Amino acid sequence: MSFAEVVFLAFWAVLIAELVGDRSIYALASLALRFRWGVVFLGYTIANAAKMAVAAVLAHAITHFQSRWTFIISAVAFFVSAVLIWVDEPRETERVDAKRQAWPRAAVICFCSFFLTEWGDSGQIAAAALVLKSHLLLATWLGATLGIMFKGAAALTLGLQIRNRLPVSALRVLSSVSCSVLGLLAIAQAMRD
């Protein structure tokens, strides 16, 4: 397989794997309700690019992780995100300055929300399998990261549409509840495995 073929295969395989049954798309839309879209997308992209790099480098090991622990770690990360979103409510008079000054904190929250969750998911396993087959780490990483970014852009578009139609207090509650539900779903998955 050529470099370009592997990039395309990784893009397509990861995009499809991530769209089918992946919960990070909901977390991304939820975080977009609370923080600036650029900061959310930056944190999301960097976190997932790093995760895909780990998947590519440790392809064989990732496919053998015990899924119970990955779900428990995901649940903790979602609950921490829910608490941070709930507690961090800017006052109306300070909104513009707070958004400008708080972007590093928002970027850290977004990065951690995605980097610490859903390890060993179907997208990473698809990328790992492609690395094992093609032995092209860079091509697989590039295609997988582009697939993740495409999915993220679609989720952010949805989140921004909702943000423009709801008041800030409702968005805070919706974001926190969404992350909490995702945490509960991760715990339920850990109990089944």
Taking all Cα atoms into account, the compactness measure Rg is 17 Å
Largest sheet: none
Mean pLDDT: 75
Report helical residue fraction: over 70%
What is the global morphology?
globular
Number of helices: 10
Low-pLDDT segments: 90-100
N- to C-terminal distance: 36 Å
Helix and strand pattern: HHHHHHHHHH
In terms of DSSP E residues, the strand content is under 5%
Tell me the total number of β-strands.
0
Number of domains: 1
Q: What structural class do you assign from the helix and strand content?
A: mainly alpha
Task: Explain how this protein is built.
With 193 residues, the chain is mainly α. Helix content is 82%, strand content 0%. Helix 5 packs antiparallel against helix 10. The longest helix is centred in the C-terminal third of the chain and has 27 residues, at 137-163. The chain is globular and about 50 Å long. Residues 90-100 have low confidence and may be disordered.
Task: Present the secondary structure layout.
Layout: H1 3-19, H2 24-34, H3 37-57, H4 59-62, H5 67-87, H6 95-101, H7 103-115, H8 122-134, H9 137-163, H10 168-192
Helix pairs in contact: 1-8, 1-9, 2-3, 2-9, 2-10, 3-7, 3-8, 3-9, 5-7, 5-10, 8-9
